[in-house]
Write a structure and sequence with these properties.
This protein is α+β, with helices and mostly antiparallel strands. It folds into 2 domains: 337 residues, BirA Bifunctional Protein, domain 2, CATH 3.30.930.10; 94 residues, Anticodon-binding domain (Rossmann fold, 3-Layer(aba) Sandwich). It is 43% helix and 18% strand. It contains 20 helices and 16 strands. 35% of the residues are buried. It binds one RNA strand of 77 nucleotides through α3, β6, β11, α16 and α18.
Amino acid sequence: MSKPSLARGTRDFGPEQMAKRTFIFDTIRRAFQRYGFLPLETPAFENLSVLMGKYGEEGDQLLFKILNSGDFSGKLTDPDWNEGYKALTGKISEKGLRYDLTVPFARYVVMNRGTLAMPFKRYQIQPVWRADRPQKGRYREFYQCDADVVGTDSLLCEAEIVMLLHDILPALGIEDFTIKINNRKILTGIADMIGAHGMEGPLCVAIDKLDKIGKEKVEEELIQRGFTSESILKLEPVFSLSDGTAPFKELKNWLSGSEIAMKGIDELETVWKLVKTLGLENARIQFDVTLARGLSYYTGAIFEVKANNVQIGSISGGGRYDNLTGTFGVPGISGVGISLGVDRIYDVMEELNLFPESRKTSTQVMISNFDEEAFLYGLSVLPKLRNAGINAEIYPDSVKLKKQLDYADRKNIPFVILIGSDEIQSGLLTLKNMKSGEQQKRNASDIIALLTAERS
RNA sequence: GAGGUUGUAGCUCAGUUGGUUAGAGCGCCAGAUUGUGGUUCUGGAGGUCGCGGGUUCGAGACCCGUCUCCCUCCCCA
């Protein structure tokens, strides 16, 4: 016999936590549906050929791989063992747990492109798995809520994502948040402008840390990553720009020589305009050149949402990807989407005390079980309550009333029906209000009417 | 994957330089109360001290390994 334990980075969710999580899921799902997204679910695991190479090298490493079933090592030869673990992995594992919902979605779109009404809008709420080291707000199994549109380049999609976030987060009580937006094309243009063509990857990683470690440290890191001091000098405008409120003009002057950067700026300006046209006042959107995060497949807009005044990383992220389906052989389908992290939103709401006070119980009334005769009588009342739409249960054992009331108390059941010989004889049951302690004698249909009224 | 930190009852934690039988609060169970929960009082149960090895006459404490929690880096929801 061994002590039970949870796998690293995983958690159980008890009834109380589930009530809160369900509240989040329901709020998000309702919003997704209101914007015309349709539901989709995909398998927990996929063939590794689908997942590998989509998230960069780092991502490949964080994929949970599933060992082939059966005699996975039978066909291995001595050279296989000496080729290193990466080559070996390919020979003993063909499947992996999904790392996000976007790539499985792209796979689905490619496999079903003939039958989908394009542009196709889908939402998907499922867990994903990542084999990284757990930390605050970071788990190895967590839920993502994704909404994506594929099959259109329209920047309305980006604007709608902004709207969607402005619907969902306040509905959850998160009023103080910032949607940071950047565009991959601008980053590409910057890399070109400073004479570091194709190096936007490392550039992004370093720049992204600006607000965390400061300008000097960023410059140090850039040198370490192989940028020339000349390039870094040319990068100067980025630092002065980063906290401006309407930096597009400056940015245009600086990057006028880069066609691709100008296109990126233009795209962002359009998004800003569309958001305004959609009637959103005081949008919590902020352009941030230093926002460089994003999985390797992003090509246009990049989003990241931060809840302010909390010690938790971003609660949402997303962006536009032009060639994700291309990696499955079907190019030319552009997509854009957003992903909300339920587990982090939960942590934020917990930290800010934002969960509405909800009834911790689902049972509204419990019938006591005094003795055999009363039990049988109770069984005849129970279905009447349930048929009337009242959540009801009967205590299953004939034990001391004290114990039964204690159970009701602990389960936060607001009403108890006491049935004994008196009640059976008169047909008037004792309805006890557990909060006030008061009791009244009523017949079954009166009780149903009372409880129904109580519920609303 | 690199570095740091933590682990003692169901929970939160004490436990002296290594020394008898490892403690407290809360919770749990039972009784006070044979038809009445929360409050109170009384009593009780509950520990391979994360796991494995080592040092020692003797280890919860010291050493090594390992797992886990939390944190920093990397990266991300």
